[in-house]
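Exercise: predict the structure of this protein bound to cobalt (II) ion.
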Amino acid sequence: MPTATASAYDQLTARLHDRAVVDSIGTLLSWDQETKMPPKASGYRAKQLAMMSRMEHERATDPALGDLLAACAEDSDVQGDPVKATNVREARKDYDRATKLPTELVVEMTETSSLAMDAWKTARAKSDFKEFQPWLEKHVALNRRKAECYGIPEGGELYDALLEDYETGMRAAQVESLFKPLRERLTPLIAAIADKPAIENAADGRACPIPVQREFLNEIAGALGYDLDGGRLDPTTHPFCQTMGPKDVRITTRYDANNFLDALQTTLHEAGHAMYEQGLETDTYFGEPRATAASLGIHESQSRMWENQVGRSEAFWAWALPIAKKHFSAAMDGLTVESLHRSSNIVKPHFIRVESDEATYNLHIMLRFDIERLMLSGDLAVADVPAWWNDRMKTDLGLDVPDDRRGCLQDVHWSMGAMGYFPTYTLGNLYCGQFWDTVNAELPNLDASFAAGDFAPLLAWLRDKVHTPGRTYAPQDLCERVTGKPLSHEPLCNYLESKLTEMYNL
Ligand code: CO
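Solution:
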């Protein structure tokens, strides 16, 4: 910690670094909980995590931090330096939001979350929405209060205040104007695919032992550019990517011993998140906004690009099939680049969001966004959520939801009280589609380099354009700087239509 005579800016960054240490210890504890912790340790782990989050909150809302931010705002040297100005502007935004929530509200939300998560698990197991309904009602009420504390932006709505936590600068009306035309183009595309013969998954039923899959995935992820000397891959039920320090970005995946594509796609996704984290300038600025991701939507754009645009391409398979054969030998007999390319691009409506393909996935997100917005505005009673959900699944995906377990009770998000989070998944797909258009215009030989196992040109482009700036630009400004255009549904629609028209002979 610098002395009191150090400049306000140096004191500010010292506090941010100190907070990052606390945050990263909390992250390490939660990573351990998901990957290694013995089940009997959960009670004490909850205490440890609660202590860490209290310490984080104290540091985030310390009035001394507010004083330092005020002093930095007055300092022309700080304001004239782009890195320092970014850090002060973004740290101010974080501080203002953190201090707008009264402690009793934060405590009530945390307590409600842990009780509601238990209730949700039981309700989901029994497929009984009524049991979860009072908790969801309580979460909606708490989220309304939270949004009011944050304040509704001029001309906006309650939802905007929540969305700001995840996708800064984005508004619900704008999400709607992006999602509506996307839905109008995806629904006929998905319906046309449903009329065509299904594509058989050529990877199904091929026994690939999990330890061998792990070696295969480490080789693939490392070749893409995920630095495994500063990372690692572990198994979990719900895959994720977490950063525990400037040289420690870990991912997890889940395995199906009889279909290696599942773990591969999940690993490519999480490695995409990890490469973004590794591309932030954490050597110099760890803990500062300058070396923090721009938003959840931008984060998701990076995971989706490696999972979908790269990992589901023919060029990728031209390179990856021989590697798969090396690891899995006889289990790969008869597989071709074409059969794996086709198997990676199966479109089939599914009840479950996380099991869904690249095209139908977005319709799951739009449904959740609409429900959240309607619940928050009071236009949809929580009791009517299952019926609304099931109607929409029928309209958009042609599915009859058999029970709430496979319907509105499937996701953990609402039980945690997280509202405003879902749209960032599809916003990520949209950012990704747009970045993909631009990178292919600027680097026209990407396919050839993928087929040769050279992913460095793509990664270097992403590092330069998307990763390095951190939070220097708001997400939509970053998109416009990189692509020359405001965010639009069109690049993603064009990409999906052209690929799937060919794949399914539409
Ligand atoms: Co993701």
